[in-house]
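Per reviewer request, we include the raw input and output of the structure prediction for the construct analysed in the revised manuscript.
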Amino acid sequence: MWLNPEEVLLKNALKLWVTEKSNEFFLLQRRRGHGDTGGKFTGLLVGALDSVLDSNARVTPFRILLQMPGSQVSWTIACGAAVGEMNRHWDWLVQNLLHSLSVFENKEDVASFVKGKVKGLIAEEVRGRQAAQEEEPEKFREALLKFELCFGLPSSEKLVTTYSCCCWKGRVPRQGWLYLSINHMAFYSFLLGKEVKFVIPWAEVTRLERVSTGLMTDMVRVMTRRCQLDFSMFLSLDEAFGVIGQLADIALRRLLDSEGLELDRVLQQSSNITKRVLEEQALRTYVLALFRLPRGERLQEVALCSVWTPHARCHTTGTLFTTDSYLCFASRDEGHCSLLIPLSEVISIEKAESTSLLPNPVIVSVRSKKAFQLIELQDRDSLVDGLTSRLRALQWKHSMFRSKKSLVYYSNTTNFLCHWCYRLIYCKRLWEDHFPEYGRGVHMFRTEKIQKLVAMGIPESLRGELWMTFSDASSELASHPGYYSGLVTESMGQSSLATEEIERDLHRSLPDHPAFQNVKGIAALRRVLTAYAHRNPKIGYCQSMNILASVLLLYTKEEEAFSLLVAVCERMLPDYFNRRVIGAQVDQSVFEELIRDRLPELAEHIPDLSPLSSISLSWFLTLFLSVLPFRSAVCVVDCFFFHGIKAIFQLGLAVLDANATALCASADDSQALMILTGFLDQVKYDEDPSPPTPHPSQSGEEEGRPPVKQHTLITDLIADSYEKFGDLTVRQIEKLRCRHRIQVLQAHEDTTKENALRVVTPDVSLSPENLADVYDLFKTEHFINLYWGDGGTTLALQHHDPGRPYVEQYRVDRVQFKSLYMLLVPWLCGFHTDTVAHRTFTLLDQDRDSLITFREFAGWLDTLYFEELNEKVRLLYRLHIPPALTESEDDPSPLKSPQLSTTRPLHVELPNGEMRDFQEQLKQMLKDLAKEKEKDVEQPVPPMNQREFIQFCKTLYSMFHGNPDENELFQAIATVTSLVLQIGEVGHRSRCSGSEVSSEGGAGDEVEDDHREGSQEDHPVFSTEEDGERKEGTSKSSGSESQSEWAVSYAQILASLLTEQQLVNFFEKPMDLSAKVAEAKVKQYHERAGLLMLQQGTS
């Protein structure tokens, strides 16, 4: 298949490739070990490595390179697994391109031409493949064509699916088509001669809801920052609502937090997204959450089947999910029966003889000398082949680690356990009776019975083992022996912000527990936290991790505690411990909706649930460890490892339900906090002999409150949570997370915008409304480049980093700035506009990183629209001297820059016809300038040479073109140009003859007069000496040469401009930024899309 060209620095690195065909510009290469018959060791080794590597790391056996003669850099333009396909690609290149390349003289032109052709081929393939993937290819191809014609977006804006529906405007429905693409949702309707269409970027969507109104019972409501849109009459509303939520969620995660919220590799490339891919990803997300699998696992096969369950003595019907490293089975009713088998535990997968009673059976044998029987598999052969292939690859990988041994730093963890906790013999016997029937280890059957046992509390002697089993940390630990000890060795002794925070929190972790009142326990905790921070620098260390790690160390060995911490932070609580705890905030938003749905009376009395969610945040972050008595909280952790985050949602709802009456009667947030805190303090474990803490709501009968019992058993509270809220499913939680993540991310964006405006507002004169609109335009331009860029975007722009200062989170490069320049600049310069925009970007890019921040952009606009005349002229002046203007800059204008001089009389004609000497007139103008409002004194700008002044005049002429007062402005600038040239000529002559004049006495009287009034060289109007060295790009010369160079200063040019009232009126004329911004909002998308389509068409 054709590939987007990628650079290859070494065409034959490590001799891994063999060239099959070659010519001047192209190479067809084969991977060693593929097709070799000689049996050479190198080929065998390469072939073996390629066969066992993970499929993401495998290299296709054939590739085609684009090479430039004499260059060490090549580009991969095609790859494939079949030699026939590669030969067809090769023949196409030879027949269609090879002869055309000989006419190019420049190597860069050859590379650009070939890359453009390859990208065109890819676009055609993608369009055809996308249509073929749909259930009705011809219908989808027709919809794709309508989408492109109706909305005019670039071809890279990939359409995902369409739905027929009604869009409501008030009480009026408009029947039409809803188009869902990777970056936008668009609607088109043409009814009774009236056309209605709009495009909404997913980045603008703030909330998605399913609502019912008086007119329609079920509608999809899409809310943005500017409008609210209602859609109804879907043939499949559930499907449409799910796809809309998925696309919005994926787009926001990709655009707003690509570092913190890692997307699946398939979704990172937006061109891969199709409706089928979305369905697969939704199912994959559900499976990962249901079985708490590593987030890197990919879903391979899904098959309906039945599994023999010995405890029930029958086959249980359900669904088999296979991933890279696991076999997972879930019954039809979620939670009724599930089974998790890591491939690392599997010995063999065999097909048995099919019978009428046992159709298509498969036997899976595991290391514990047990076997699982699966029947009624429809596509048994392909399923077994895929599983066997992955099993062999996994076994080979694990064999590479068997020689490594784990170094245990602290394994006598039984000393951590407090023996004052007497276990019930009955509870332990129940577990001992359970294991023989349901299995022991990670592949035990997980049924409703084991759920009841977990709710009763796991015996301390089994707690560590079962935590490792339920989280599957045991198989991860067995697969990577020595991994933890290696991390400890690498991380100890290193200093970072994470290690400093760890040291600060070590002694705050369960300070009352004996295990952490000695050096040994503190050292173990330090090693676990430091090793994890070293393993995952993106998370590093977050508060509450110390509490969690402390509890894990109490019941497991040190290495096991580390594996459990990895499982919790990276699999069971995804995105909880990143920089902005997005995952925890999302779950708080989900929790609020569950309160409204499951506890409607409480939600009715407390319309604003944000105080309750702020209280419950610690429940989720610490798994109730920070709010419940220790022994009660450990029982919650038991349920968490068995049921995942579902257990925390259920328990949180049960706590609120138990206190609903008191919370409804509470007067304020502080009283609600006291009620919940007091209730949780008195939740005790069965055997806990400590006295209860009075409940805050028990304040006396005189207040009319019902008496409450003195304490609540944690086992009763957990049982109550399962009884009342046990119907909450993982699938429901994942759907809610998808929708509420949109709200949380957009809330963070609103905060970012508010703070950016707060920082910039004191520095500019823009109104708050205009500044907010300019921020939106600036941010939209950044997004447009991510939507439809050509892939050449810098890494800084591809990834939005929320950790940067608010005004620097969104930046634009030169191309994006030019687009904004065309939309917002008050004075366009015709064909010269692009050149002026280029110089403006260079001037604003003060740190030379080829990016401009919002602060810099807003300051530039403020100067153009609200600063006084002298500041506007100063800006124009600086655009025509280094660094904005360089010696090497190509001048696209047909006008040249000849060396000009004049010997015309130096005088100024006043409006009344009187002629005045220009020196007197300029001195008067300077006095008038001095009387103006004083401002902060800026550093003086260097003088302008003749070439730069000609460029300055050229810009002024182009600015006035098309102005109603064009003729008068041209006459005025001609007068000013002549005047400034005369000034420069005088200064030039005076410096050239200065030394001779000073040595002669013939002009004594004139010189004395000059000195009495101030010499021309000393007066700022005539001074041309630089206050500092010129920027890079100007040539250095000797002292005599620099003195004789023609030059004028900013003050001279400003004073000359002030002599012409037409020019003064032009620069002082008030300009309406609001109208310009409103126009830019309408034009930004279409102009940028049109420009990009033009660029793609010429590539």
